[in-house]
Amino acid sequence: MQCCGVYPDNFTYSFLLKACNSLSLVQMVHAHVEKLGFYGDIFVPNALIDSYCKFGCVGIRAGMKLFMVMEERDVVSWNSMIGGLVKNGELDDACKLFDEMPKRDMVSWNTMLDGYAKAGEMNKAFGLFERMPERNVISWSTMVWGYSKAGDMAMARMLFDKCPMKNLIIWTTIISGYAEKGIVKEATVLYDKMEEVGLKPDDGFLISILAACAESGMLGLGKRIHASIRRCRFRCSTKVLNAFIDMYAKCGCLDAAFGVFSGMSRRDLVSWNSMIHGLGIHGHGEKALKLFSRMVHEGFEPDKYTFIGLLCACTHAGLINEGRNYFYAMEKVYGIVPQVEHYGCMIDLLGRGGLLEEAFGLLRNMPMEPNVVVLGTLLGACRMHNDVDLAKAVCEHLFKLAPSDPGNFSLMSNIYAQAGDWVNVANIRKQMKSTGGQKPSGASSIEVEEEVHEFTVFDQSHPKSNDIYEMIDRLVQDLRQVGYVPKAYI
């Protein structure tokens, strides 16, 4: 355009800035703006501030520098700067600017409200919410979302009930909140009420709710929603069908997941990845590998997530040679450089198969530093195969990365206990006490009659806990009769 002698105007820069995917490009456009003198139109510096704020701390500082030298600022200038600070987690600075604003609009209030909610500072959010001169559905939805994430469903429900203008977004927020917490009855009742008031689900609603069902294992609500959209003949997009596959797979209903997959008129890579991963994590390794072959045959190029699913499938089915082949074919055949997640899967596969030396060799040859998850995986394999010497070597690396993680101490202590090394068990216990760490109790959950029950070790909270423990004692006795010997861990 410039070569043709056509000069830019103020609108040109807004489009250019939207195309900038790096800080250096924004700086180049900024230099051009200064050179041609377009600061006079407030639209241009506002667009620059907004663009700078997308690139972390360095971008925020550049945006603030421009904001401070602006001769004229409007409410968009203030909102853009506050929004950038909020997204970067600099709430104190954002609050200071918010207090200095000569005039606030709804965007200003909602931006600060969103910042406090995402930071989990719900007392400050509620204080701000009460001060608002007026509120819209975004304000109410933000508060419901914040309290849901904080686990305070009573407060979230109270605000939802008081909201004078309920749209699909706030219904999605409250139902997802209940679903994520495994509160099936409330989620189901609200879903029915939403249908009664005439609101129809859209893609965003379905994807959010199904993701929450997958996370909490709430199969009942997922099935109910599926039946509902079939009844009203809702035309599901590929993304929604992928969410159904993911939900059914994570809840263990592989037939239902495959039924959705098979019935899709148009699949994308996520569809194949979800189905491969679902089959893999439930031990159907060979089916997952066959599905991968079919995927490639149909012309789909695998990505890094495909190989995570394949390696997980090989791990759960004990397919060591197949896993090796896929791992080394990633880069050679498909041009995908293995990431730390792929190394973690491969180390897990080798470790579970008892090939601890090979797993440790792969760990040492990783092109990146192993993280806590990878090291913890290998340490777990050492415990499984009672390899104390290798466990010590792994722990040297692990304690450097996570010196106060009680889970690592607990795992190492179990390894020593399994080997009968009670002196080192005592030493590990002393180290645990000196770091002040305490391993949190693991929790399990199960859905029974549309209600999710969560329980921990020695949990007495369930009204029928005595009957449950009596049944467990009977099961243990039956297991001992067939030769099972339980292992004692700390």
Automatic annotation (TrEMBL):
GO biological process: RNA modification
GO molecular function, one term: RNA binding
InterPro entries: E_motif, PPR_At4g14850-like_plant, PPR_rpt, TPR-like_helical_dom_sf
Extent of the PPR repeats: 74-108, 109-139, 167-201, 268-302
Record keywords: Repeat
Protein name per its UniProtKB record: Chlororespiratory reduction 4
Annotated source species: Lupinus luteus
